[in-house]
């Protein structure tokens, strides 16, 4: 059994129209959400043997704040392939992970992370958490999957069970969707 965590970067800032997408920082709401999710991740577990992440600025800032919230420090394996990757690319990357790592946390972007959940967790009506992901996998969401494989190379469609899903708004309603009247 392998354990896979997926953590989407927190809310980013769109105010500088000249900034490249890769270089967008977090906004105030995103900083609050990343810190809060770090606290939650430390309490909810598990401990991660390996962390792999996109090097985009909004991801690096999310990780820094999550580490502060968790009171932990992670050794990060930065991988540019995660930046705006498809589910297929993320799966390929995970299949390369050394089997000594029993648990891996991937920090990245949508739609790739969300689609990876859809690919790994069967759509058979048995997972209310998967149904919640179908509604939305917002920024700074944290998911944990138990994968019925002994080797990362064997990770494939339908092999996982989604056992944990937390969105920032689950911890603080102020971090939920902004309603426009």
Q: List low-confidence stretches.
A: none
Provide the CATH superfamily: Phosphoglycerate mutase-like
Q: Could you spell the SSE succession in H and E letters?
A: EHEHEHEHHEEH
Shape: globular
Structural class: alpha/beta
Give the strand content: 15-25%
Helix percentage: 25-40%
The CATH topology label is: Rossmann fold
- Give the strand line-up of the largest sheet: 3-2-4-1-5-6
Determine the N-to-C terminus distance.
47 Å
Number of strands: 6
- Mind summarizing the main beta sheet? 6 strands, mixed
Give average pLDDT, whole number. Answer: 94
Number of helical regions: 6
Tally of discrete structural domains: 1
Question: What CATH first level would be assigned?
Answer: Alpha Beta
> In the CATH classification, which architecture applies?
3-Layer(aba) Sandwich
* Whole-angstrom Rg: 15 Å
Describe the protein's architecture and organization.
The chain is of the alpha/beta class. It has a single domain, classed as Phosphoglycerate mutase-like (Rossmann fold, 3-Layer(aba) Sandwich). It is 34% helix and 18% strand. It is built from six helices and six strands. Strands 3-2-4-1-5-6 form a six-stranded mixed beta sheet.
């Amino acid at each position: 059994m392998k354990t896979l965590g997926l953590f989407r970067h927190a809310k980013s800032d769109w105010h500088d129209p000249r900034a490249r997408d890769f270089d967008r920082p977090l906004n105030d709401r995103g900083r609050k959400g990343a810190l809060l999710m770090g606290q939650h991740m430390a309490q909810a577990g598990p401990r991660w043997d390996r962390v792999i992440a996109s090097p985009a600025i909004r991801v690096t800032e999310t990780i820094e704040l999550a580490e502060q919230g968790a009171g932990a420090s992670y050794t990060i394996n930065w991988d540019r392939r995660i930046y705006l990757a498809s589910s297929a690319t993320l799966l390929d990357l995970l299949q390369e992970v050394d089997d000594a790592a029993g648990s891996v946390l991937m920090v990245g972007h949508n739609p790739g992370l969300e689609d990876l959940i859809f690919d790994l967790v069967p759509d058979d009506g048995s997972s209310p958490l998967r149904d919640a992901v179908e509604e939305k996998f917002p920024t700074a969401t944290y998911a944990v999957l138990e994968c019925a494989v002994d080797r990362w190379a064997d990770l494939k469609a339908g092999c996982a069970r989604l056992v944990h899903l937390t969105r920032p708004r689950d911890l603080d309603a102020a971090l939920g969707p902004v309603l426009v009247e």
